[in-house]
Protein: 3-isopropylmalate dehydrogenase
Organism: marine sediment metagenome
Amino acid sequence: TNLPEKSFDIIKKSDVLLFGALGLPNLPPGVAESAILKIRQDLDLYINLRPVKLYNVLREICPLKDEFIGDGIDITFVRENTEGLYKNIGKLEKDSAENLMLYTRKGCERIIKFAFEFAKRKGHNKVTSVDKANILKPSQLWRQIFHEISENYANIETEDIYIDAFCQWLIRAPYKFQTVATGNMFGDIISDEGAFLIGSLGMGSSGNIHPGKVSMYEPIHGSAPDIAGKGIANPIGTILSVKLMFEESFNSFEIGNEIDNAVEAALQEGRTVDIGSKSLKTLSTVEMGDLIANKLKSRLKA
């Protein structure tokens, strides 16, 4: 790993970790990412929470037709974060390569239970499970456990969708989904697809969570070296990651809600270039952040 032990010791003594972004174009794949994987594995951050919410003021830049947006897009992906292919058990040889897709009962049970509890807390009436149980043995175990646990939540509707079909339905009818539970690799892919629907990857937030223990929050975008130093990056993904932090690690749902409202209010006055509007001022990273901060201050003083 490329994470120094001294840094990891500091992380372990913290309440939460707010992570920025990493990666450089001249680094081979996996070099920078190994630091993130170490944090996830060693801290057992088994929940990856990724909200995908289209603010009403951004409907105009959503790539979908209005009829497909329907009543709006507000999905939370609950992704298993420590098992599956991303556990990185495998080898690369000259003429072959392999990775082990390992699911355990313990790993499936705890993430699926969290998904149902999350849906219950949010007032969602449906949990969707995304897998590939028609082909993959790990997905068959996942689906079996999903239905076992669902029996304890009689008031919550359940549905199973194969990953390939879900990718289609996420475009055709995203308004149908609320809480979506899935495995590590599938969750990585479909949550990025979802972020595209809300305007920009720069809007995407996430939490790597172990309830009651040190957790890590980060935007889903990379380091964007192509725009480094230009001051045009969208800070909203990071700001919404702080919102998640208050809600999931500190149970401060009121503050989380105020951050959400401040973001929506700011988007009506100005935007960074990636989510720009001809009728609104284009803001720099700092200007966007300051506008949201000022909106939040006003709301908290009220």
